[in-house]
Amino acid sequence: MDFLGEGLRRAFQLISSADPEVYGIALLTVKVAVVATVIACALGMPLGFVLASRRFWGRRAALTVVNTALAFPTVVVGLLLYGLLSRRGPLGGLGWLYTWQAIVIGDVILAFPIAAALSAAAVQGVDPRIRRTAETLGAGAWRTAWTVAREARFALAAVITAAFGQVVAEVGAAMIVGGNIRGATRTLTTAVALSTAQGDFGLALALGIILVVMALVVNVALQLLQGRGHA
Amino acid sequence: MLELAAVRQAYEGRVVLDLERFAVAPGAMIAIVGHNGSGKSTLLRLLALLERPAAGEVRWDGAVVSSPRVRPRAAARRRITLVEQRPVLFRGTVRANIGFGLKVRGQRGGEAEKTVTAVAERLGITGLLERRRHELSDGEVQRVAVARALAVAPDVLLLDEPVSSADRAAAQALYGALAEERRARGLAICLASHQLEDAYRWADDIRALAEGRLSPVTPENLFRVELPAGDETKHVRVGPIAIAVTTARVGPAILAVPPTDIFVSTEPLVSSARNVFTGQVTRLVRPRPGVVHVAADVGVELIAVITEEAARDLALAPGSRVTFAFKASAVRVF
């Protein structure tokens, strides 16, 4: 109990004293998570729309691939990305290995299937009469998609939350392609893993608390946004 | 002119619609009548270009608009609007809903607002403009959906059971507004209904669908007449025969004899029915299993609906001598 109590005391001390290292790690995590979520959703959500609303050859296969990719192990993504970005890999020339950009790429690969599969499910959940009504009133493809998206806004907000949750909690790929370099690529999850291994339980706990608060803030913000919406 | 040519539609291999030709001329007022599942809604969705037929073509002013080419279809779709049987409203106010089609067409601001207000007034829904969909009854949603469709001033308005959630007064008000709209700018209206009375009253052209095909038996025993003044039971001339009718109305009217209210006999009938006519069976049609439509020439053509069992018992065949009887009170006056 002393061990836990001591850890918690130190965690709160680190947080309340605005420890520059802790806040540096938190800021980098936010940066990586926001950029990766935006890119993954910008790519995945339109794909989800197309998969849900268009009938084309190979659609079922594409849906299967996207759904399977949901369970892709993060360390395998990290490994494959490492192979691509390492000096001897085909993208080695970019020099992105062990940079925050590399972590973003890994996170995008992991969050993209979430954005695509969940937004496909969200769009499929919209009453088909909404699409037909928009079309019969003369709406083109974009306006119709926007109208459908407005109806699915709660589910689509949940898609963003889920993608952000995946990105912010991911550790395997970030560790492999980020390298957990202090002050450069150390994110909350990789820092927690390292601190625990080094026996600094208080620091690990402080970082863990920040991680949980971050997830909470995103969820509450989205719930507030949803609450403002009217039928 | 909106036209289906040799159109067939099938879902999962089951043919639900098979029409040689179906045309909606400019300014027409067509009622499509038929039972549930007869293909009415499918027909309307094809006419609205919301579905592409499995075979055949949809043409708009002679141009094929059912092809995969998006542009001609999109252009035609802006002239044709469908109101579904159970319409849905978009998120937002009734005002925003009615303005949706105008916004799509790039109309905003004062002019769009004027159109929204005017169409809401014509349909008697001005008081609903600031409400949202969860604050409306089903009947109100239907009226808003019709207003939303009329706001874009379509050339063809397609309505699927437009008054299914409305009470009698609201239904008549809606039909009245549509008739007014048609008079004002000559739009064509094509509505699907299982309410024969409405079809008789409001449409110029009634087409019956059965099992996805245009039925040769029209649902009406429908006559335009001049009702004389006098007693409540009147004998109204319809061609060479006089039909007894119970009505206080005087002047031009439409008589409808519901085919299910006609008794069919092969023997002369002595009954309380005021209308007893003898003639010859001209044709027998079986629109669905167990039901026979008997058409007979009794001076005018009348159609009676009887069961297969009754047709068998009476040994009916084209050319059979037959007596049709129905009460004066069974005759509807519109």
Write the layout of secondary structure elements.
The complex is a heterodimer of chains A (231) and B (334).
Chain A: H1 2-16, H2 20-53, H3 59-69, H4 74-85, H5 100-124, H6 128-136, H7 141-151, H8 153-169, H9 172-178, H10 188-198, H11 201-228
Chain B: E1 2-11, E2 14-24, E3 29-33, H1 40-47, E4 55-60, E5 63-64, H2 70-77, E6 80-83, H3 94-104, H4 109-122, H5 138-151, E7 156-160, H6 168-185, E8 188-193, H7 196-202, E9 205-210, E10 213-214, E11 222-227, E12 233-238, E13 241-246, E14 251-256, E15 263-265, E16 275-288, E17 291-297, E18 301-307, H8 308-314, E19 321-326, E20 332-333
Parallel strand pairs in B: 3-8, 3-9, 6-7, 7-8
Antiparallel strand pairs in B: 1-2, 1-4, 4-5, 9-10, 11-14, 12-13, 14-20, 15-19, 16-17, 16-19, 17-18
Helix pairs in contact in B: 3-4, 3-5, 4-5
Largest sheet of chain B: 6 strands, mixed
User: Would you tell me the overall average pLDDT of chain A?
Assistant: 91
The helix-strand sequence of chain B is: EEEHEEHEHHHEHEHEEEEEEEEEEHEE
Query: Oligomeric form of this entry?
Result: heterodimer
CATH architecture of chain A: Orthogonal Bundle
Which structural class is indicated by helix and strand composition of chain B?
A: alpha+beta
Give average pLDDT of chain B, whole number.
89
Number of domains of chain B: 2
List segments of chain A where confidence is low: pLDDT < 50 over at least 5 consecutive residues.
none
Structural class of chain A, by secondary structure, is mainly alpha
CATH class of the largest domain in chain B: Alpha Beta
Provide a descriptive summary of the structure in words.
By secondary structure, chain A is mainly alpha-helical. Chain A has one domain: MetI-like (MetI-like fold, Orthogonal Bundle), CATH 1.10.3720.10. Chain A is 78% helix and 0% strand. Chain A contains eleven helices and no strands. In chain A, α4 packs across α5 and α6 runs antiparallel to α7. The longest helix of chain A has 34 residues. Chain A starts with a helix and ends with a helix. Chain B has 334 residues and is of the alpha+beta class. Chain B is built from eight helices and 20 strands. The longest helix of chain B is centred in the middle third of the chain and has 18 residues. In chain B, β12 and β13 form a beta hairpin. Classes of the chains: A mainly alpha (231), B alpha+beta (334).
